[in-house]
Structure prediction request, 264 residues.
Amino acid sequence: SKGIMDGKRGLIMGVANKQSIAWGIAQACHEQGAEMAFSYQGEALGKRVLPLAESIGCDTVLECDVTNAESIDALFAALEKKWGKLDFVVHAIGFSDKNELRGRYVDTSAENFRMTMDISVYSFTAIAQRAEKMMPDGGSLLTLTYYGAEMVMPHYNVMGIAKAGLEASVKYMAMDLGPKNIRVNALSAGPIKTLAASGIGDFRYILKWNELNSPLRRNVSTADVGKSAMYLLSDLSSGVTGENLHVDAGYHVVGMKAEDAPDI
Ligand code: NAD
Prediction:
């Protein structure tokens, strides 16, 4: 059958397990006919990612720690050798010390601030630098963000500051890479129970709040995110760059939900 990603080759970064947002996107890419390579962080995760990749017919599974420039160079050297060209990259990577994803933002440490920015913000730019060289006919770069960049969310703290930086970097890179027809977009996902999210304080409460207060009155799944990612990764969004697409059951438009108001 004909898929909207037929003939496209891309790199998926950030699969840790079946719950990962990157895995939801990879499954949708597969259904739409894309060919993919995967990168993972560390041997322990590699053992989980390899069988997942193989289950959708992908045998290129490479290690890459984004805090290490040589590691990123080695990943792209391997892709250059395998394919020469690349059509898309999915960056679904973020990290912060979980001890700083609770309590007050104002108490955040300098050391964790720098690490969070390096892994969660700079890595997307570092990857774009390498991807640009492999996209002579244009391409699509996609990163994952969260509403905590735009508004204060409980416990998101330093990650909120990082996502604000990430969203700004999407706009700057959209401008820089636009002349080469390389589009750069973000997808702002609603809360989803993943490994990374388990580090955020009171995450179950945040999930429940979104379920009760979003326009669709539910949470989103990685399959919801995967389907919307097909728009940003495929030619369906050929005129779209620098965008931040909210896949959050509409939560970002809510100022206040109508309830049975108490008598006041
Ligand atoms: P996840 O734990 O499945 O994925 C996070 C990934 O980041 C993991 O695969 C991990 O290995 C990788 N990573 C961390 N440090 C790395 C490093 N130094 N080098 C290479 N990889 C590294 O969790 P997820 O929720 O799927 O997260 C994916 C992205 O989605 C993140 O950017 C996250 O902030 C974002 N996001 C998540 C939610 C949510 O509620 N889960 C909502 C909006 C946005």
Observations:
- The beta strands are 9-13, 35-40, 61-63, 88-91, 139-145, 182-189, 244-247.
- The mean pLDDT is 97.
- Residues 14-16, 20-22, 41, 45, 64-67, 92-95, 119, 144-146, 189, 191-192, 194-197 surround nicotinamide-adenine-dinucleotide (CB under 6 Å).
- The radius of gyration is 18 Å.
